[in-house]
Give the backbone structure.
Amino acid sequence: MYIIAMYDVGEKRVGKMLKLLRRYLNWIQNSVFEGEISEVKLLELKHKAMLIMDEKADSLIIFKTRQEKWLDKEIVGLERQELDTFL
Amino acid sequence: MYIIAMYDVGEKRVGKMLKLLRRYLNWIQNSVFEGEISEVKLLELKHKAMLIMDEKADSLIIFKTRQEKWLDKEIVGLERQELDTFL
């Protein structure tokens, strides 16, 4: 399964979420990640995210597609910023 | 065509990008939007985005899929924040 995941969490939890998501997916922009992941690993990721998140204030949105080829990615402007530049 | 679009632009250009994208798509989180859009409208959107963006610093990533049903969306935590809360 191929997913795009994006979080919107309180400032205090950004670092932890970033670290967590980087363990499972590839960072593409700001708080957005993408990558191939198994059902089991995704469950694990969601479980761990919920432990970090404040459910009343934070959110994590996941778009899933069975095949990566069903998704076309296009980038306008800068291809990629180094992770360091926004940390 | 169904798309997910996300921008990462300098602070000065955030307001303009937000306003532009909201004219074409639905806001879902931070700088992330989704929606059904035609090829022509997408070209128009990209053209207008490029006029706002600083190509050396900003980026706009677009994921496209021919059919919305190929994408599954899941939200962990807060379902939706009002636009006002992050403006």
About this structure: Helices of chain A lie at 11-24, 39-52.
